Structures are given as C-alpha cells and as structure tokens.
C-alpha cells in the first residue's frame, strides 16, 4: 500500500461533507477534476471503494464511514499544527498566533465578544477562531485549543479552571407580565405561553426533574437553539429560561419565581496541558478566565 498524502484525505473529507465533487471543490478552492483525481488516487492507494457514484451525487460506502473519524483526526491535527506554528518564528515581542476557542451558542454570542475585544486591544497579533457549538469539543484530538464547558473536564491531560456557577431561571418581559399576570406556582406557570426545547437531549433530561409537571407539550414556542429562546424572551413572546446575568442587562426582563427554578451551570475553562507554553494560548486562556470571572460575579 502506498501511503497517501494529506491532500487526498482532505479531499475525501470534503466529498463526505458536501456529497459531491463540485461541492467539495468549492469548499477547498480546487477544481472538480482535481478533487476527482484525489478520490481515485486514495481509493487506489487504500484498495477500497469509498464512494458510489450516482446521479444524486457521491454516496459514501461503509468503508468511507469507517475511515471518516481517522481522517477527521488528521484534519484536526493538521489545523492544530498550523495554529501552533502561526505563533512561532517572530522576532518581536508581540504575541502572535491563531487560537481556536469553543463555547456554547449563548456564551459565544452574548458573553465572549467583549472579552475578545479586550484581548485584541492588548494582543492584536492573536487571531481567534470561535467554534460555536453546544456539544463538547474534543480537546485531546485538538478540535479546539480552549473550551468553555458547562461540566468538569475528566481528562487528566487538560489544564482546567473552575470559573463558577452560571445561574439560570425563568424570565419574561415586563409588558408580557402586565398583560398576562405573574405566575407563582407550577400550575399558574403551565397556563402561560412557555418557551422551551423542541427535542430532548442529555441536558434537558437532567433538567426535566426540576421543571415540576411541565412536559414538552406545555411549550408554545419550541426550539433547540438557546439563542432563539433568549430572543423570544426579549421579544415578549412568553416565559422562558435564560442566564440570570444576561437578563439583568435588560431592565425590561423580569425574573419569575426563583423559588420554583434555580439552576446552576458548573462552568469550566479547559485547554490541553501541552499548550501551556504557547504564548498565544496562554494569553487567551488568561483573558477568558478573567472575563468569565467578571461576568459570573457581575463585575
């Protein structure tokens, strides 16, 4: 077997994600024939059929699905190598480099931007890649360099700092409550327009025991996006759950029945221990820790 080079695996992943040579070519900035040659060369080198060619596009075979996680690991490692190399070889004292940060939707949109603005003012040579995701990125595989997580990291090779608890509670806009009244019991709450999740996930399964008798059918506005929940509360659509600190920024939002629901999200900042000596990663980690501390404490 001839060992394929990285370009072939990169084209393989692009075709897997896009489902066609043309889509893969656009995403990679290559020509369609070039991507086609890459796929043929990879299949020949591996002795495997990776795609079924059809009018609907390129359909991945079982072999392609089996190889996908290994190719994704190569992609993550390659990206991490380039980020690490971006901060090397500079003779001046300015910190330079690319740092990939991952955080949830709400934290990425509502909390991190002012922290990153402060960081950029002091370290303009640092470029931030912000991966917005509610799933836990794999820091060991280097999908990201630094992660803001709502649970304690379990891997020993991660540098982790507990930031504190981000508090959640029921909120609504004042004019909504003026029209419909303020609920004080679960029974009263169930008669309101409630904003909640569409599909069950691991977090909502943990949350459900805290929600009294409320079920999925009780929600009049349903979405799996926390940003949609927040925007709906701000628009006066009804009552939903959001971060208490975010609601306190808007004088029109009122917290409802804290005795009914008071959720604390255990918040952590984590990165791989190998990045401790990387000046750019260290600077970003320090800035995020300070900024998140201020956010949680209300400073």
TrEMBL record:
Molecular-function GO terms, alphabetical: DNA binding; DNA-binding transcription factor activity
**Sorted alphabetically, which InterPro entries does this protein's record hold?**
LTTR, LysR_HTH_N, LysR_subst-bd, WH-like_DNA-bd_sf, WH_DNA-bd_sf
The HTH lysR-type domain, residue ranges: 4-61
Q: Which UniProt keywords apply?
A: DNA-binding, Transcription, Transcription regulation
Superkingdom of this entry's organism? Bacteria
Query: What PROSITE patterns does the entry give?
Result: HTH_LYSR
Gene3D superfamilies from the xrefs?
3.40.190.290, Winged helix-like DNA-binding domain superfamily/Winged helix DNA-binding domain
Pfam families per UniProt:
HTH_1, LysR_substrate
The record ties this protein, via PANTHER family, to: TRANSCRIPTIONAL REGULATOR, TRANSCRIPTIONAL REGULATORY PROTEIN
Q: Which family does it belong to?
A: Belongs to the LysR transcriptional regulatory family.
Q: What is this protein called?
A: LysR family transcriptional regulator
Query: Origin organism of this chain?
Result: Duganella lactea
